[in-house]
């Protein structure tokens, strides 16, 4: 709902929510020595999506950053050859996913499913209007 005094445009809110989401998930994952990109890489590997494809929107400014994401996971034995989830990685991902899901519930507290889905739909349509080309890939 638009409130008097909240005259900031949608772009401002998108950037602010993105900043706060990044901070929130970094804090949740930090206790396990993992950052959000690493969690996303593990999640992509579980789903069989190439990690470089899944992380492309997040690493567009720094393509060399992919190694910084995957090498620590390989060193921990969670990825083999930086592409496939190992059994130890699957166990770690399950525990991390529980924390991420709890944080998502906290973030969406007071937002009903229909509001969330409508927000996603509006943002998707705006992205298409701006030139986004939907693919069959999964979201991370």
Q: Could you say which overall geometry the principal axes of the C-alpha atoms support?
A: globular
Reading off the top of the CATH hierarchy, the class is best stated as: Mainly Alpha
Radius of gyration: 17 Å
Low confidence ranges = none
**Number of helical stretches of at least 4 residues:** 7
CATH hierarchy: architecture: Orthogonal Bundle
Q: Average pLDDT value?
A: 89
Largest sheet: 2 strands, antiparallel
Number of strands: 2
Proportion in helices: 55-70%
The domain count comes to 1
Strand order, biggest sheet? 1-2
Strand content range: under 5%
SSE pattern: HHHHHEEHH
CATH fold label = Arc Repressor Mutant, subunit A
Give the end-to-end Cα distance, rounded to a whole number of Å: 28 Å
Class by helix and strand content?
mainly alpha
What does this structure look like?
- With 140 residues, the chain is mainly α.
- It has a single domain (30-129), classed as Arc Repressor Mutant, subunit A (Orthogonal Bundle).
- The protein is built from seven helices and two strands.
- It has helices spanning 10-30, 36-47, 51-54, 56-59, 65-75, 87-107, 113-129, and strands at 79-80, 84-85.
- Strands 1-2 form a two-stranded antiparallel sheet.
- Strand 1 (79-80) and strand 2 (84-85) form a beta hairpin.
- Helix 1 crosses helix 6 (87-107), helix 2 (36-47) crosses helix 5 and helix 2 packs across helix 6.
- The protein is globular, with a radius of gyration of 17 Å.
């Amino acid at each position: 709902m638009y409130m008097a005094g909240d005259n900031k445009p949608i772009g401002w809110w998108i950037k602010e929510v993105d900043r706060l989401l990044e901070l929130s998930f970094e804090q949740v994952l930090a206790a396990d020595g993992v950052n959000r990109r690493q969690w996303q890489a593990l999640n992509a590997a579980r789903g069989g999506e190439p990690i470089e494809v899944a992380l492309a929107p997040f690493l567009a400014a720094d393509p060399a950053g992919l190694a910084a994401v995957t090498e620590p996971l390989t060193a921990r034995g969670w990825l083999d050859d930086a592409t496939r989830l190992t059994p130890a990685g699957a166990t770690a991902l399950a525990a991390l996913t529980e924390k991420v899901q709890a944080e998502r519930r906290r973030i969406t507290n007071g937002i009903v499913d229909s509001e969330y889905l409508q927000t996603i739909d509006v943002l998707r349509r705006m992205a298409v209007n701006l030139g986004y080309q939907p693919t069959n890939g999964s979201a991370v």
